[in-house]
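Issue 218. Parser rejects a valid record. Input:
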Amino acid sequence: MIPFLHLNKVQKSFGNVPVLRGVELALFSGEIHGLMGENGAGKSTLIKILSGNLVADNLTCTMNGESLSLAEARWSGKLAMRFIHQELNSIAHLSVAENLMLGKQLPTLAKIFVDQQTLSELTQAALAELGITHIDPQERMSQLGAGDQMLVKLGSAFVVESGKPVAQLYVLDEPTASLMPSETEKLFEALERLKQKGCSILYVSHRLDEIFQITDRISVLRDGRNTLVEKTKMLKPRTVVEAMTGRQISQHYPG
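Output the parser choked on:
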């Protein structure tokens, strides 16, 4: 099976300090891929390279078996991605709908005025992907609790913009940090729907229970190297922890 996106031999150093030392990441369509590692393992650097916020010192990239640069994949629209980070980064005095559209093109009337009706419809449709019906698109973000604010941020990844390619890859970095268990379940249900649509999902988390619940495969990084890549159903929590830490675990973890 050919990966939707395959990054290989990814290297990145800051000065004389190597952060990524030949990392490989293969993402498949219709799959949720968990990325784990302790702080400093290289996860954030890899995500920043994927998003274009950092440039790798070296890497090879293929999409559906076609060799191309990662920058070419992004700018050509072949690789349409959505990133969801754990920080809220919301603007309190703006409405839910306006926050949902931050960084996106607002629908307009006569290319002058914001089309509030379309904006509200886009917001409701995006939130509906998460099973959310209790949040008013016109409500100010400052009136929402932390959990609902995070749900709005998650909803922004599901906005369908006119003239823009539909996202094929979703990258979620610790998305449940501010969520209640019921909200986390709504997120997982949305991810399963994306998976069924053939999307590829990279799920970054320190929470083993979430990783084992939602993912199909797991990659573990330690000191900038791959220490484990395997189907989730073939693994036990102890094996993943040992790959993360480099130490044998004899207690506290099953298996």
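Fixed in the parser; the record now loads. Residues 64 and 175 are 27 Å apart (CA to CA).
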